[in-house]
Write a structure and sequence with these properties.
The complex is a heterodimer of chains A (314) and B (271).
Chain A (H helix, E strand, L loop, with lengths): L1 H34 L6 H17 L4 H24 L5 H20 L10 E3 L22 H19 L3 H11 L1 H6 L4 H27 L1 E3 L6 H16 L6 H24 L7 H33 L1
Antiparallel strand pairs in A: 1-2
Chain B lengths: L6 E12 L7 E12 L3 E5 L6 H9 L6 E6 L2 E2 L5 H4 L3 E4 L13 H9 L13 H14 L16 H14 L4 E5 L7 H18 L3 E4 L3 H6 L3 E6 L2 E7 H5 L3 H12 L6 H5 L1
Parallel strand pairs in B: 3-8, 3-9, 6-7, 7-8
Antiparallel strand pairs in B: 1-2, 1-4, 4-5, 9-10
Helix pairs in contact in B: 3-5, 5-6
The chains are: A mainly alpha (314), B alpha/beta (271).
Chain lengths: 314, 271
């Protein structure tokens, strides 16, 4: 009973965290589902978003401007991965890993900007000292500074913007690139350019998520993005498994990833209340993603077998 | 002076070797020369590995050629990448999966094809006016697709997908239509239907077409010109009345005579 009560009590927190991670999940959806690329840049670009935003806020820059700068930094990271993949011909996964690794060093440098140290692995933000847009401190408050409100608005705006973009000629051609490259080229689509563009947009979303997470949690750490791709995938897959049949529209599919992220954090909160250590979470997340990725494949195997049997019977 | 017939395609001395310097080295095009006049509908036959599809891919720009020049309607396209040449070309592939985006709607596929060769910006990807236009065009295919415009293409049969690809390839009139054994993966009845659709589209829009086929009967029955390839070159090129009189036996004899080898793969040629 106690566990249940404290779980319910922590749901607003899971919701806030889920919304902020939801933007990251949307970024993963764009690469993994639309572009058909597993982009590992995100582990680095999430922290880059947090670092750029955090440093600028500490320096006294307006938090909205800081967010914008974080998004641009993330887009730049996506550009690098995209160019490594298309212009240099490196496989997409490896391109992402290379950028992610390079970003680790860069993020340490970014966080030290304006500081006497040359590198820095953590940066503290405080809602008392810094003008943060969202803070987990107010997550249970019934007021306008409750972060869930602003996060929901930002998520809705992002989904709206992406829905519009992927309905444009350019957006459609990016979707086509992910769906069928041969067809796309035969229809005059520059598939390389589109892959780069998709990675740029995706990592912009991921960096925005990092910027919001940094403010929400009041800190930037060098490992805040470690394993982010797996959390993002978990959110995308949970959203898909639960809502794919109901949500047909593209905007709703993006929303499904955000809902997936919220559910993911609700579940994580629950298992933490049940006595798991927070350090066990990565193992748990990996297991969840592995299981959810396995199920459709095994289902297909079963399904096709069953069909064959029917045929031989007849 | 009479107006000279315009050349839609000129292939001049094109060479292509795959995997050079390895045990798998294969000279696929060996000084290919070919000129198509505006309105030519040429059928291309030859045994496996003769270079039919390679010739088609060279024209489409799938990879750069080793030597030679390719002109489309007088413009040198030799150095243009595939996606830039697409402006001039309509293409239908052997595999019905290749020509369409399975996870996108029928109308979205058509909208993509309608913008072939155009800059794709931030305008709407598909307009209501276009949807009405697509519905009318799909009706002419007589496959019931006009009522399934928002269905994902992955739900269509192979024949339906090829018919749709054909429509996409010709939605914006191409200077040259490239057909790469586009009925080979279909059952005979569907293949015939798709081929008839092909014929009528080519005739109605006065297209110049290059159709690779494995089927000698089809090669004889369609088009105004027939080409036989062997070892990366054209070994037979007949047109007009002479082509109309061709029989499958003629082709087999000619092949044996010109290539200097007896037919060991009749089955492939006759398939």
């Amino acid at each position: 009973m106690n566990v249940l009560l404290s779980f319910v009590n922590s749901l607003p927190g899971a919701c806030g965290q889920g919304l902020a991670w939801g933007l990251m999940a949307i970024g993963v959806y764009l690469t993994y589902k639309i572009l058909d690329v597993a982009d590992l840049t995100v582990d680095g670009s999430l922290a880059t978003g947090g670092a750029v935003c955090g440093v600028l806020i500490v320096m006294g820059v307006n938090p909205w401007v800081a967010m914008l700068a974080a998004i641009l930094a993330g887009m730049l990271a996506g550009l690098v991965t995209g160019l490594l993949h298309t212009a240099c011909g490196i496989p997409a996964i490896l391109s992402g890993i290379l950028t992610q690794l390079a970003l680790y060093s860069l993020n340490l440098r970014i966080m030290a900007i304006g500081d006497t140290a040359k590198t820095k692995a953590t940066l503290a933000l405080s809602v008392d000292r810094n003008p943060l847009l969202v803070s987990s401190r107010f997550v249970r408050e019934l007021s306008l500074r409750n972060p869930i409100l602003l996060l929901a608005i930002i998520v809705a705006a992002a989904i709206g913007l992406l829905y519009w973009f992927f309905g444009t000629e350019l957006g459609c051609s990016i979707r086509a690139t992910g769906a069928n490259q041969n067809m796309s080229r035969a229809q005059g689509i520059n598939t390389d350019k589109n892959k780069v563009l998709g990675l740029v947009v995706s990592n912009g979303m991921v960096a925005m998520s990092g910027a919001l997470l940094a403010q929400y949690s009041g800190s930037v750490t060098i490992d805040m993005g470690r394993g982010a791709i797996v959390i993002g995938l978990a959110a995308v897959i949970i959203g898909e498994v639960l809502l794919d049949k109901v949500f047909r529209n593209f905007a709703l599919k993006l929303l499904a990833s955000v809902i997936g992220a919220i559910i993911y954090y609700a579940v994580i909160t629950l298992v933490l209340r049940l006595g798991l250590e927070s350090t066990d979470l990565k193992l748990l997340t990996a297991l969840v993603v592995a299981v959810f990725l396995t199920v459709p494949n095994w289902k297909e195997k079963f399904f096709t077998k069953a069909k064959k049997e029917v045929k031989t019977d007849a | 002076m009479p107006e000279a017939v315009k050349n839609m395609l000129e292939v001049k001395g094109v060479y292509k070797t795959f995997n050079p310097g390895t045990v798998n080295e294969k000279r696929a095009l060996n000084g290919l020369e070919l000129t198509l006049a505006d309105g030519d509908f040429v059928t291309v036959i030859g045994s496996n590995g003769a270079g039919k599809s390679t010739a088609l891919n060279a024209i489409a720009g799938v990879w750069p050629v080793d030597a030679g020049k390719i002109f489309i309607d007088g413009e040198d396209v030799t150095g243009l990448p595939e996606y830039k040449r697409a402006r001039y070309l309509g293409r239908v592939f052997q595999d019905p999966m290749t020509g369409t985006a399975a996870t996108m709607e029928i109308q979205e596929n058509l909208a993509l094809a309608l913008r072939r060769g155009q800059r794709r910006g931030l305008r709407q990807g598909i307009t209501q006016k276009e949807k009405d236009q697509f519905r009318e065009m799909l009706r002419t295919l007589d496959l019931g697709l006009e009522d399934r415009m928002t269905a994902k293409v992955g739900l269509l049969s192979g024949g339906q997908r090829q018919a749709l690809t054909l429509l996409m390839a010709t939605l914006k009139k191409p200077k040259l239509l490239l057909l790469d054994e586009h009925t080979a993966a279909l059952d005979p009845k569907t293949a015939e239907k798709v081929l008839n659709t092909t014929e009528s589209i080519i005739r109605e829009s006065h297209l110049t077409a290059f159709m690779v086929t494995h089927n000698m009967k089809d090669a004889i029955a369609h088009g105004n010109r027939l080409i036989m390839m062997n070892e990366g070159r054209i070994i037979l090129d007949v047109a007009g009345e002479e082509k109309k009189r061709l029989t499958i036996k003629d082709l087999l004899d000619k092949f044996a005579e010109l290539s200097g080898s007896s037919i060991t793969n009749d089955s492939v040629l006759l398939a």
